[in-house]
Amino acid sequence: QVQLVESGGRLVQAGGSLRLSCAASGRTFSSYALGWFRQAPGKEREFVATISRSAGSTNYADSVKGRFTISRDNAKNTVYLQMNSLKPEDTAVYYCAARRQSFTINPYEYDHWGQGTQVTVSS
How far is CA 17 from CA 8, 29, 41, in A? Predict the structure, then answer.
């Protein structure tokens, strides 16, 4: 079992940057693929980025490719989402998620979720 706690969300101006963190409990963090997802008001939860257990592979939604970077530090049990060139349409609650199998962009295939952190980008 792994528990996830996100942090780092806040209000930022368009064009700015933020780094989200997701700290995980447990001793088997490196055995989990991790993902970041987001949900805006009135919209479904959508895929943002995912990273493999070894950090050797990543995948990004087209809407964030080139602006966001996912990374992980298995020694610190933490996954990060560096967000640059933020746009108002990036406004959402951001969630991290974990699964023991290989990484995937499908949120329904993740078993563990954090409580979310709010990111608001003003124009």
Answer: 11, 27, 22
- Please provide the average confidence, as pLDDT, over all residues in the chain: 96
Pick the closest to residue 56 from 78, 38, 83, 74 (CA basis): 74
Give the pLDDT confidence of 61-77 residue by residue, as tens digits.
Answer: 999 999 999 999 999 99
Sign of CA dihedral 104, 25, 77, 36: positive
DSSP letters, the chain, are ---EEEE---EEETT--EEEEEEE-SS-GGG-EEEEEEE-TTS--EEEEEE-TTS--EEE-TTTTTTEEEEEETTTTEEEEEE-S--GGG-EEEEEEEESSS--S-GGG--EE---EEEEEE-
Contact between 45 and 95 (Cβ < 8 Å): yes
Tens digit of pLDDT for each residue in 88-115? 999 999 999 999 989 999 999 999 999 9
